[in-house]
């Protein structure tokens, strides 16, 4: 069982890999840091 089996992407979908989770998390973090909605 990996993180991709227990965590969801911001859109509610399932990640295919840990790398996909990292990319989505980094994108969300950067957006929040910039103040984007």
Automatic annotation (TrEMBL):
Protein name as catalogued: 3-keto-5-aminohexanoate cleavage protein
Protein source organism: Streptomyces coelicoflavus
Native organism taxonomy: Bacteria, Bacillati, Actinomycetota, Actinomycetes, Kitasatosporales
